[in-house]
Specification:
The structure holds 4 protein chains of 4 kinds. By secondary structure, chain A is an alpha/beta fold. Chain A contains 9 helices and 12 strands. In chain A, 38% of the residues lie in helices and 21% in strands. A 6-stranded parallel beta sheet of chain A has the order 2-1-3-4-5-11, sandwiched between helices. Chain A has a 6-stranded mixed beta sheet with strand order 7-6-8-9-10-12, with helices on both faces. The two termini of chain A are 31 Å apart. Chain B is mostly helical. The chains are: A alpha/beta, B mainly alpha, C mainly alpha, D alpha/beta. The complex binds adenosine-5'-triphosphate (2 copies) and magnesium ion (2 copies).
C-alpha cells in the first residue's frame, strides 16, 4: 500500500538523532525523508513530527524515547545504532507504540520494534565502478573518520567496485579518527591529491573537508554517500549514493494503520529503491561511464553482482 | 568568622560551631548565577519564537516534576559526582586534572572487556571486580600525567589534554577490533559498539522502568569516604599540605612528588570508576561517546561544590537536574538542542563569577560584628 | 615505497604542516599573551568556534573576506571581555569560567549555524597568494611562499608577539603582572587593565584562528568545526614555555607529525590508523619529557589578584 | 629626562601629615585615629609590636589601602591616594616588608617597570641603566643593573627597591622593616645610604623591631600599640627602656645568668661538605661539636654557608662528604623523618615558606610533622581529640595569640607564627635543635619570649645551634660562638671572650689568631 489517505487520523512521529539535522549525512537523510513524507501526506495536519538532535548520550536518549512514547507518539524513531539498548528496555512498556531503530538488524523479537539498515556497500560498489572508469592517474583517495559502520561498508563496496573494473588501480585510504575534525580531513584529502589521486570519496560529516580540498585542486572528482552532496561542489561531484527512507517510513505508517506495529527489518537497497545513485546533472558524465554505472546498478538489483559488506 | 570569636573570648580554643549561614551563602549565590543565565536564555528563547515560561516550566518539570525526571537527574549526577570527587582530590594537591575524558574512556574500556571475558562469573563477584578493574584502568591513565609532573615537571594540563585524545583513539582501535560486537560483524553492519554485557554484571535498578541504578548510592558513599579521606586521614592531610605549600611539606618530611602523583592517580581512578559505572549501570555495552563530556562537566560540578566532597553531592545533583531539565525543555518547545549548551555555558560562567560576592559578603558580615562589639 | 623519500612527498608534508599549524599559531600565541599576564583561558576552543561561524556567515552573505576577519576579531573581543570580566573583575576560578566560555561558544555557534545558514555550504575563501620572487625558489618556494594571507599572518605573528613581549613597555607590564601582580600594583600599574588587555588580545587572536579555519583552510562551517583544536592550542602554550618561538616549535612538531601520519596512511604503512592518529599526541608529550623543559610557569598564573593578599 | 638630584632638592616635600587615620579590616581595627607626620630631612621611626598597625598605616600613605576616616596632607594641601600611582606622583615611595620585585626580570627591567619610556612603546633600557648607575654613584647604592633579581642577595634586592623609589624621584620614602633581613654589614651600608638621602633633603619613615637601630638612625620616634598612637618623641629625648614600655606596656627582663655546665657532645659534625644551589661547593669541610645543654652561636655574613649547613643537618640537602652524628648514632644518610625521630628539630630561616602553611589552621600547622605518629594517628586515621588537647596545651604554654585552633595561620602575626613553629619543634623534646634566624622580623616582646624559650631548652639539655645575623642575639644567648666564612669555620670563641669587633673581623675572613691578638 502507498501513502495513507488523508481521511486517516493524524499520525505523530518522533525522531531522535545523534548529530545535527543538517549534517549533510546520516541524520539529514532521515530528517529530509520525514519532511517529504509529511509533504506527501498533506502537511502538519496529517503528520506531526517531533525531533531531538545532537543526542549521543544514552541516558538522554532513553529519557527522550520514553518521554515521546508516553506522550502518545505513534512511531518513535531512534535513528542511531547506539540507541538499541534503550529501545530494547523501553519498547515492552509501550506495546501500542511503534519503535524503529537503526542502523541495525535486530528487532529483539518484539512485535512493536522495527530495525532498519542501509546496504551502503551497494552504492559504494556503483560509485567504485564509475570512479574506476574516470580515473586517469589510476590512483583514488578514500577519506574516512573511523573504520566502522556504513563508513566501512560503503568503502569496502567502493573498493570492490573499483577492482571489478581494473584491479591495478590503487585505492589509498586514510582515517582521521574523528567524525568532526574537518581540518584534518582536509589535510588528508590534500595528501591524497599530492600522492596523485584524481578522484576522492569518503564518509561522515567531516568529508565536507575533503570536498573542499577537491575544489581547491580544481580537477579532482568527488563521489558522495549518505546524502546528495552535489551542492557542495556542483561541477566536481560525479554522483552520490543517497539514503532515501521515505518508502520505508510510508510503509511503516501504512502497516501501522493496518494494525501491524513492527517485528520486521528494513534494509535500504538499490533494488527496493531505498538507495539511489544521484548523478549530478552539473557534471557531464561520459555516456559509456554512465552506462557502466547503470549496469552495475542493474546487476546488483537482479543479484548477478553480489557485494559483500 | 574566627576573628569574631577572638574578639569576645580570645583564648577559648573550642572550634567555632559549624556555620550554616556560610553554607547558605555558598549555595544561594551560585543559584543566583543560574537564574541570571536562565534569564538570558529566556531572551534567546523569545528570539527563537519560543515561549520562555513554557520552556522553563518544562525544564523544572522535566528535572523534578516526575519520578522519571528525578531519577534521570540522579543518573546524570552520578558520573558528575564521581569525576568531581577525583577533580577535588587532585585540586587539593594543586594538580589540575583536565584528563577526565580519557580516564572515563579507560575505565569504560576495562569495564567492558572484563565482564565480556569472565562472563561466567556470578554477579556478586563480577560486579565488584569489574568496578575495581575500571577504577584501576582510569587510575593508570591518571598516574601517567601524575608521575610526569612529579618527576619530569611535564605540565599536567598539557599531558592530560593529550592523554584524552590518545584514549579516544585507543577506544576507536578496540571498538573496531577486539571489542566490536560480533553480531554486528555477522550482520555486516560493523557498528562501533561492543557486544551487550552479561546480564549479571548489570547494576541493579533502584526504580523500575528508570535508569536509576545502584551506582548512584555507591557514588554518595564514596563522596563521604573521600571527605573522611581528605580531612581525617594522614594521607589526605599530606595531599592538602602538598597542595598548599610544597616547600613546607618537604621540610616536614612529606614526599611531595609522591603525593602529587598519588592525587592524580586517584583522580583518574574515580573518573575511570565513573566510566565503568556508565557502562555496567546505564549502557550495558560500550558505545562511542561514552564520556558525554562528563570529564569537563565534572570539573564544573566540582567547583560548584567548592571543591568539597560533601558540597559536591548537591552540586552534581543540581547540575544533573539542569542537564535533564534542559533536554526536556528542548523537546517541549522544539528549539535546537545547541541552545541548551549555550545556556549551560552561561550558567557555568555566571556561577563561577558569583564566588567573589560570597567572599565579599562574608567579609562584610565580619565587619558588622566587629562594629557591634566596639559600640 | 620509494615515494616515501621523494622530494614531492617532503614538500607535501611541509605544506600540510604549515596549513595545519596556522590555527594553532593564532590561538596559541593569543593564549600566550593571556597566560603571560596570569590568566588561563580554557575557552579558546569556544571563541574559535563562534568566530569561525561569524566569519563564515559574513563571507557567505557579503563575499567580503576582510569583513569576515573583522567580524571574527570582533566576536573574539566580545568573548574576551566576557572572560576578563568573569575571571579578572569577578576573580572567578579560571579553569571553570574557561570551560563555561567553551560550552557557550560551542552551543551558540551551532545554534546560529542552524537558524541562519541551515546546512553545510562552502565559500570561496582566501586564495593562495604566491609571493613573487620567493615563491619561485625551486623546492621550498612553493612550499613556503604559496599560501593564503591568513597563513602568512600566522607566521608573522610569532616574531611580532616575541617583539611585543620582549621589547616594549607593554610587554614588560604584561610579564610583571603575570609574575608578581603585587609588585606591579605597587608601581602604579593597573593590574586588572593589563590582564583585560592580554586576555582580550588573546581572544581576538583565537577569533582569527577560527576565521582562518572557516575562511582560508576549509572554507566552510559546521558543528564543532574545531574539533578541540583550541584545547591543543592551550597545551602548546605550556609546551612552548610561554615563549612565542617555543609555541611555534610546538605547533610545528604537532602538525608535522600529523601530516606525516597521514602520509603513512596514504602510502599504506602497516600500522592501525588509530595508532597513526595517536602519534602527534604521543610525540608532543615525549618531546616535553626528553627536552626536560623546566621553564617555570608565570608565578601568578591562575591566581586572581586582590590588594593586601600578599 | 628627570632633573639632577640637586635641582629638585628645593622642590622636595617639606611636610607630610596623616590626620586621625582610621582603618578597619574584617574583624580588626588596624588604625584608630592615628596622627603622624614627617618633615623634610628627618628620619621618623615607627615602632610597635607585630600587628600594631605600622604597615597598614604606611600602606595608606602609599595608596595601597584607602583610609576609612582621616586625611593626608602634604605641604598644606590635602591629597587622596586612590592607588600607588597617585602616591608616586606626589613624590612618595615605599620599600615593602616583603619585597615587591619580579624575580624573573633584571634589575633594570624592575626599575623601568611602569615608567614611561622615552621611546614609547619601545623600552629604552640603556637609558634606564645609565641613570641607575648615576644614582648609585650619588647615593652609594651598589647594584648591578644587568643581574636578574633572583640572583641577588636579600641586601642587594633591597637596594633595588630603594633604587626604584629614588628613580621615581620619591622625596618621602617609607622603609617597612628594611633591616629585618639584613646582615650587620648590610645594615651599616643601608644606614650610610639613608643618611646620604636625608642630606639630599629626602624624608624617611623607618619601621623596625630593633630598638638600637631606631636609637641609632632616627630623629623622632612614634610608637603604635593596637592601632593607637602611644606617643611621639624626639629620639635623643627617650631611652630604650621608655620605648619598650610604650610598646609592650612593661619592662623586659634581661636573660638571667647561666647555671649548669654543658654535658656530653650531642651533635657532632665532622668534615661536612655539600654543594650549593649554584652547583659550586658551599661547605668545604665543617667541624663542629655541640654539647647537650649548650647553645653554639654561628655568626657570619649571610651567604657564607649558614643556610647550606642548616639544610644539610635537617636533611634537606645531601652531604657530599663528612658525617653528622646525634649522640652515638650516625645520621648522615638519614631521611628527614629518620633525623627527626633520632632527636633533631629545625626552625627554618624562611618561616612562611618552609616552616608553616598559611592556609592551614593553627592546629593543622602544629602537626605538620607529628601527624603521622602515635598518639595522633591510628593507622592512617588522625586522632583529633589527642591533637586538640595537645594543641591547646601548646597554645596556652607558649601564649600564642590566636582566636581559635581553626584560625588560618596567615591571620597570625609573624611573631606568633614563629612562636608556633618553636612550640611545634620544641614539644618533641629534641636532643639537638637548629634555630635559623629565630627572631627575624619578630617584635621585641616576642623576641624576648623566644630567647627565654631557647635558654629554657638549653637548661633542659638540648644541644642548640643558633644561626643568626644579629650579633647581639648571638652574644647574649651563646655559650660558644663559631664564626663561618666562605664555607669554613674560621674560629670558635668562648662566651664573652671576644669583642664584637674581633668577631666582625673573623666574619670578614680574618683568621682567629690575627683577630684575637693581631
Ligand atoms: N590585608 C589585611 N586584611 C585583614 N586584616 C589585616 C590586613 N593587613 C593587616 N591586617 C590587620 O591589621 C593589623 C595591623 O597589621 P599591620 O600589618 O599594620 O601590623 P604591623 O604593625 O605591620 O605588624 P608587623 O610588625 O608584624 O609588620 C593586624 O593585626 C592585622 O590583623
Ligand atoms: N589577609 C590577612 N588577614 C588578616 N590579617 C592579616 C592578613 N595579612 C596580614 N595580616 C596581619 O597583618 C600583620 C602584618 O602582616 P605581615 O605580613 O607584615 O606579617 P608580620 O607580622 O609583619 O610578619 P613578619 O614580621 O615576619 O613579616 C600580621 O599581624 C598579620 O597577621
Ligand atoms: Mg608590617
Ligand atoms: Mg613584621
Amino acid at each position: 500500500p502507498a501513502a495513507a489517505p488523508a481521511a486517516q487520523k493524524q499520525i505523530k512521529i518522533a525522531v531522535i538523532m545523534p548529530s545535527a539535522t543538517n549534517d549533510m549525512a546520516f541524520s539529514q537523510s532521515m530528517w529530509s525523508a520525514l519532511q517529504s513524507v509529511q509533504k506527501d501526506m498533506g502537511g502538519e495536519s496529517a503528520l506531526q513530527i517531533a525531533y531531538t538532535d545532537n543526542l549521543f548520550n544514552v541516558p538522554d536518549a532513553a529519557a527522550a524515547i520514553r518521554d515521546y512514547a508516553s506522550k502518545g507518539f505513534d512511531i518513535v524513531i531512534a535513528h542511531g545504532s547506539q540507541y538499541g539498548s534503550s529501545v530494547q528496555d523501553i519498547a515492552p512498556d509501550f506495546p501500542n507504540t511503534t519503535f524503529a531503530w537503526g542502523t541495525d538488524v535486530n528487532t529483539f523479537g518484539m512485535k512493536n520494534v522495527y530495525a532498519y539498515t542501509a546496504a551502503a556497500e551497494q552504492g559504494g560498489y556503483v560509485n567504485g565502478v564509475l570512479a574506476a572508469k574516470l580515473t586517469k592517474s589510476k590512483i583514488i583517495g578514500v577519506t574516512g573518520p573511523v573504520e566502522v559502520g556504513d563508513a566501512k561498508t560503503y568503502i569496502d563496496g567502493f573498493v570492490q567496485g573499483v577492482a571489478s573494473v581494473d584491479p591495478t588501480i590503487k585505492v589509498n585510504k586514510t582515517w582521521t579518527g574523528s567524525f568532526s575534525d574537518v581540518a584534518l580531513m582536509t589535510a588528508a584529502a590534500k595528501t591524497h591529491i599530492q600522492a596523485g589521486a584524481d578522484i576522492l570519496t569518503g564518509s561522515s560529516q567531516s568529508v565536507v573537508g575533503s570536498i573542499g580540498a577537491a575544489k581547491d585542486a580544481g580537477n579532482v572528482l568527488w563521489f558522495g554517500t549518505q546524502a546528495d552532496q552535489a551542492s557542495l561542489a556542483p561541477n566536481l561531484v560525479v554522483a552520490s549514493q543517497v539514503y532515501d527512507w521515505t518508502a520505508m517510513l510510508k510503509d511503516m505508517i501504512a502497516k501501522r494503520q493496518a494494525g501491524t506495529l513492527g517485528g520486521t527489518v528494513y534494509t535500504l537497497t538499490l533494488s527496493n529503491g531505498g538507495l539511489k545513485i544521484a548523478y549530478n546533472p552539473g557534471y557531464n558524465l561520459p555516456a559509456d561511464v554512465k552506462a557502466a554505472g547503470d549496469a552495475a546498478i542493474k546487476g546488483i538489483q537482479d543479484g548477478s553482482i553480489t557485494v559483500n559488506p | 568568622m574566627q576573628i569574631k570569636k577572638a574578639a569576645n573570648k580570645p583564648l577559648s580554643l573550642r572550634r567555632p560551631a559549624f556555620d550554616w549561614s556560610n553554607v547558605v551563602l555558598h549555595f544561594l549565590l551560585p543559584l543566583a548565577g543560574v537564574l541570571a543565565a536562565l534569564l538570558i536564555g529566556a531572551v534567546m528563547l523569545i528570539i527563537l519564537k519560543a515561549d520562555p515560561i513554557a520552556a522553563y516550566a518544562a525544564m523544572v518539570n522535566g528535572a523534578v516534576g516526575s519520578v522519571s525526571g528525578i531519577t534521570q537527574s540522579l543518573v546524570k549526577a552520578t558520573p558528575l559526582l564521581l569525576v568531581g570527587l577525583g577533580i577535588c582530590i587532585a585540586f587539593r594537591a594543586n594538580v589540575i586534572n583536565i584528563g577526565g575524558e580519557g580516564q572515563i574512556i579507560l575505565g569504560a574500556l576495562a569495564a567492558t572487556w572484563f565482564p565480556l571475558t569472565f562472563n561466567t562469573w556470578p554477579g556478586w563477584l563480577l560486579i565488584p571486580s569489574t568496578l575495581i578493574v575500571g577504577f584501576v584502568a582510569g587510575a593508570i591513565w591518571g598516574f601517567v600525567p601524575g608521575i610526569l609532573k612529579a618527576r619530569l615537571q611535564v605540565n599536567e594540563i598539557l599531558s592530560t589534554i593529550m592523554m584524552n585524545s590518545i584514549a579516544q583513539q585507543l577506544m576507536n582501535l578496540l571498538l573496531r577490533g577486539p571489542l566490536m560486537d560480533p553480531s554486528g560483524i555477522a550482520a555486516g553492519t560493523y557498528l562501533a559498539q561492543s557486544a551487550r554485557l552479561p546480564v549479571q554484571v548489570w547494576l541493579p535498578r533502584l526504580v523500575p522502568q528508570t535508569l536509576l541504578h545502584a551506582g548512584a548510592i555507591l557514588a554518595v558513599v564514596l563522596a563521604v569516604l573521600v571527605y573522611f579521606f581528605l580531612w581525617r586521614t594522614t594521607i589526605g592531610y599530606r595531599i592538602r599540605a602538598v597542595g598548599l605549600n610544597p616547600d613546607a611539606s618537604r621540610y616536614s618530611g612529606i614526599n611531595v612528588p609522591f603525593y602529587q602523583a598519588l592525587s592524580m592517580t586517584l583522580a583518574g581512578g574515580f573518573a575511570g570508576l565513573a566510566g565503568a559505572i556508565e557502562v555496567i549501570g546505564v549502557q550495558h555495552r560500550l558505545l562511542e561517546g561514552v564520556t558525554s563530556g562528563y570529564g569537563f562537566t565534572g570539573i564544573v560540578a566540582a567547583l560548584l561544590g567548592s571543591l568539597h566532597p560533601l558540597g559536591l553531592i548537591p552540586a552534581s545533583i543540581l547540575f544533573g537536574g539542569l542537564l535533564v531539565g534542559a533536554a526536556q525543555m528542548q523537546r517541549a518547545v522544539q528549539v535546537p538542542s545547541s541552545l541548551i549548551d549555550a545556556i549551560l555555558g552561561l550558567v557555568v560562567l555566571f556561577v563561577s563569577g558569583s564566588a567573589l560576592w560570597s567572599r565579599r559578603w562574608a567579609a562584610r558580615r565580619n565587619m558588622g560584628t566587629e562594629e557591634e562589639e566596639k559600640s | 615505497m620509494k615515494d616515501v623519500i621523494s622530494l614531492g612527498v617532503l614538500g607535501g608534508i611541509l605544506t600540510s604542516m604549515i596549513r595545519l599549524a596556522t590555527p594553532f599559531l593564532y590561538a596559541a600565541i593569543g593564549e600566550t599573551f593571556a597566560q603571560t599576564s596570569g590568566v588561563v583561558n580554557l575557552g579558546v576552543d569556544g571563541i574559535m568556534l563562534l568566530s569561525a561561524y561569524g566569519a563564515f556567515y559574513v563571507a557567505l552573505n557579503t563575499g567580503n573576506l576582510w569583513l569576515a576577519l573583522l567580524t571574527a576579531a570582533a566576536i573574539g573581543l566580545l568573548m574576551g571581555l566576557l572572560m576578563s570580566f568573569i575571571s579578572v573583575t569577578l576573580k572567578a576560578e579560571q579553569g571553570i569560567s574557561g570551560i563555561g566560555l567553551y560550552m557557550f561558544g560551542l552551543g551558540m555557534s551551532s545554534l546560529l549555524f542552524k537558524i541562519t545558514i541551515g546546512t553545510v555550504k562552502t565559500i570561496d575563501g582566501f586564495q593562495p597568494v604566491r609571493i613573487p620572487l620567493l615563491g619561485d625558489i625551486p623546492g621550498i618556494g612553493p612550499i613556503l611562499f604559496d599560501h593564503s594571507l591568513p597563513v602568512y599572518g600566522a607566521f608573522l605573528l610569532v616574531p611580532i608577539a616575541w617583539w611585543v613581549l620582549d621589547k616594549t613597555t607593554l610587554g614588560l607590564k604584561i610579564k610583571s603582572v603575570g609574575q608578581n601582580p603585587a609588585a606591579a600594583d605597587s608601581l602604579g600599574i593597573n593590574v586588572d587593565r593589563i590582564r583585560y588587555f592580554s586576555v582580550c588580545l588573546g581572544a581576538v587572536l583565537a577569533g582569527l584562528a577560527g576565521a582562518s579555519l572557516s575562511t582560508a583552510l576549509v572554507d566552510l562551517f559546521q558543528d564543532n568545526l574545531t574539533a578541540g583544536q583550541g584545547f591543543i592550542a592551550v597545551a602548546l602554550v605550556y609546551f612552548g614555555g610561554w615563549n612565542p618561538w617555543g609555541v611555534m616549535g610546538g605547533a610545528f612538531l604537532f602538525s608535522i607529525v600529523n601530516s606525516i601520519q597521514l602520509w603513512m596512511q596514504v602510502i599504506g604503512v602497516k600500522i592501525p590508523s588509530d595508532v597513526a592518529v595517536m602519534l602527534p599526541y604521543l610525540l608532543t608529550i615525549a618531546a616535553l619529557m626528553i627536552t626536560v623543559n623546566r621553564v617555570r610557569q608565570p608565578a601568578a598564573l591562575n591566581k586572581p589578584f586582590e590588594r593586601g593578599e600578599s | 629626562m628627570k632633573p639632577k638630584i640637586q635641582d629638585i632638592k628645593s622642590q622636595r616635600i617639606q611636610h607630610v601629615e596623616m590626620r586621625d587615620i582610621v582603618k578597619r579590616f574584617p574583624g580588626v581595627l588596624a588604625n584608630s585615629k592615628v596622627s603622624f607626620d614627617v618633615r623634610a630631612g628627618e628620619i621618623h621611626a615607627l615602632l610597635g609590636e607585630n600587628g600594631a598597625g605600622k604597615s597598614t598605616l604606611m600602606r595608606q600613605l602609599y595608596g595601597l589601602y584607602q583610609p576609612d576616616e582621616g586625611e593626608i596632607v602634604i605641604d598644606g594641601k590635602p591629597y587622596v591616594f586612590r592607588s600607588p600611582a597617585d602616591a608616586i606622583r606626589a613624590g612618595i615611595g615605599m620599600i615593602h616588608q616583603h619585597f615587591m620585585l619580579v624575580p624573573t626580570l633584571t634589575v633594570t627591567q624592575n626599575v623601568a617597570l611602569g615608567l614611561r619610556s622615552s621611546r614609547e612603546p619601545l623600552l629604552d633600557l640603556d637609558k634606564v641603566t645609565r641613570r641607575i648607575q648615576g644614582l648609585s654613584e650619588a647615593y652609594g647604592l651598589k647594584v648591578d643593573p644587568h643581574a636578574f633579581v633572583w640572583q641577588l642577595s636579600v641586601g642587594e634586592q633591597q637596594r633595588v627597591e630603594i633604587m626604584k623609589a629614588l628613580y621615581r624621584g620619591a622625596s618621602l620614602i617609607i622603609l617597612d622593616e628594611p633591616t629585618a633581613v639584613l646582615t650587620p654589614q648590610e645594615v651599616k651600608d643601608l644606614f650610610a645610604t639613608l643618611r646620604r638621602m636625608v642630606q639630599e633633603g629626602h624624608s624617611l619613615v623607618f619601621i623596625s623591631h630593633k630598638l638600637h637601630e631606631v636609637m641609632d638612625i632616627s630623629d623622632r620616634v612614634t610608637v603604635l600599640r593596637d592601632g593607637k598612637v602611644i606617643g611621639t618623641r624626639p629620639t635623643h629625648k627617650v631611652t630604650r627602656g621608655e620605648l619598650v614600655k610604650m610598646m609592650v606596656g612593661r619592662e623586659l627582663k634581661e636573660p638571667e645568668p647561666r647555671s649548669l655546665k654543658p654535658g656530653p657532645a650531642a651533635l657532632k659534625i665532622e668534615g661536612l661538605k655539600t654543594v650549593g644551589d649554584r652547583g659550586t661547593e658551599a661547605l668545604h669541610g665543617i667541624y663542629l661539636e655541640i654539647h647537650s645543654g649548650e647553645i653554639l652561636g654561628l655568626a657570619g655574613v649571610s651567604g657564607n654557608g649558614q643556610r647550606e649547613l642548616a639544610e644539610c643537618l635537617a636533611g634537606m640537602r645531601k652531604a657530599t662528604a663528612g658525617r653528622i652524628a646525634i649522640g652515638e648514632s650516625d645520621i648522615t644518610t638519614f631521611t628527614l623523618n629518620q633525623r627527626i625521630d633520632s632527636g633533631m628539630a629545625y626552625i627554618p630561616e624562611e618561616r612562611m615558606r618552609d616552616g608553616a602553611i598559611r592556609e592551614f589552621s593553627v592546629e593543622e600547622n602544629i602537626y605538620l610533622h607529628d601527624h603521622s605518629f602515635a598518639p595522633y594517628t591510628h593507622g592512617i586515621f588522625l586522632d583529633f581529640s589527642q591533637m586538640a588537647s595537645h594543641a591547646i596545651d601548646l597554645v596556652n604554654e607558649y601564649a600564642l595569640k590566636t582566636p581559635s585552633l581553626d584560625t588560618p595561620l596567615k591571620n597570625l602575626s609573624g611573631g606568633n607564627i614563629q612562636k608556633l613553629i618553636m612550640a611545634r619543634e620544641l614539644s618533641r623534646h629534641p636532643k639537638a635543635l637548629i634555630a635559623a634566624q629565630p627572631t627575624r622580623g619578630v617584635d621585641i616582646g616576642a623576641t624576648e619570649y623566644i630567647h627565654q624559650r631557647l635558654l629554657a631548652q638549653r637548661e633542659a639539655g638540648t644541644a642548640i645551634l643558633l644561626i643568626s645575623e644579629d650579633l647581639d642575639e648571638i652574644r647574649t644567648l651563646s655559650d660558644r660562638i663559631a664564626i663561618i666564612y666562605e664555607g669554613r669555620i674560621v674560629g670558635v670563641v668562648q662566651r664573652g671572650q671576644a669583642t664584637i669587633e674581633q668577631i666582625g673581623l673573623m666574619m670578614a675572613g680574618v683568621s682567629m689568631k690575627e683577630a684575637m691578638h693581631g
